[in-house]
Amino acid sequence: MALATGLLIFLTVAADGAAYDRDEALSSSQAAIGREFGEYVFRDIDGQPFDLSSLRGKPLVVSMIYTSCHHICPLITRNLADTVDIGLDALGEDAFNVVTIGFDWQVDTPDRMRQYARQQGVNADNWIFLAGDGPSIDAVSDALGFSFYASAKGFDHLAQTTIIDADGIIYRQVYGVDIETQALVEPLKELVFDTRGEAGLIDHWVDTFRLFCTVYDPNSDRYRFDYSILMTLFVGILSLGAVAIFIVREWKHAR
């Protein structure tokens, strides 16, 4: 196992004899950015059909794991949960959704996904755990650029978390077991506060201020609203106004 440049790659040999290629996996992952994330139907922890397209309208965070992993996948999920909490605190309790999909479809049943969620201490309303079948897992992993191979120790795969925008377009890939706060929250902040002008001039300007004034504090590993930026903008506008008034008065005086 090796950890390099934020990527977790299991460097064993796959069950079919092919070595897991880190560069190829990363290339496939990056190639997915900008791709449309289609309509895929899975089963939730109650065994009921769940259409991922029903989550359109908000940014979506997708993590793929397998429940028989006893160390790395649980660690990814717990670390993701900590970062998600920071993101929800900064952006709003209903600002985005999170989905965890079990890619070992023969093992990762709805009941196993329920047990996995409970074991990792995840019970947030905006976090959904899903199980699928072979075709649905293949389709989603291809769309996400997520590569995994069966190996003697389980599976070889990237530690990959995918961010999808409200329209279903893959926006960013985040790598690593210990997910850095800014790596996940900054893209989500861009998506959450990216209110188009047609949504209303006031809403657009409010979210623009929130985008620039919600800043990361490395000392607390949290986001806060920096009022000093707002005050700087306000003083700048007043200064420009004063200069404009002076120029107009001098122009009138010259006439």
List the helices and strands and how they pair.
Blueprint: E1 2-4, E2 7-9, H1 22-31, E3 41-43, E4 49-51, E5 60-65, H2 72-91, E6 97-102, H3 110-119, E7 127-131, H4 134-144, E8 148-151, E9 154-157, E10 160-164, E11 170-175, H5 181-192, H6 201-213, E12 214-217, E13 222-225, H7 227-254
Helix pairs in contact: 2-5
Describe this structure in words.
The chain is of the alpha+beta class. The chain folds into 2 domains: 2-179, Glutaredoxin (3-Layer(aba) Sandwich), CATH 3.40.30.10; 193-255, no CATH class. 41% of the residues lie in helices and 22% in strands. The protein contains 7 helices and 13 strands. The protein has helices at residues 22-31, 72-91, 110-119, 134-144, 181-192, 201-213, 227-254, and strands at residues 2-4, 7-9, 41-43, 49-51, 60-65, 97-102, 127-131, 148-151, 154-157, 160-164, 170-175, 214-217, 222-225. The strands form 5 sheets. A 5-stranded mixed beta sheet has the order 7-6-5-10-11, with helices on both faces. Strands 1-2 form a two-stranded antiparallel sheet. It has a two-stranded antiparallel sheet with strand order 3-4. Helix 2 packs across helix 5 (181-192). The longest helix is centred in the C-terminal third of the chain and has 28 residues, at 227-254. The radius of gyration is 23 Å and the shape is elongated. The model is unreliable at 1-17 and 196-202 (pLDDT under 50).
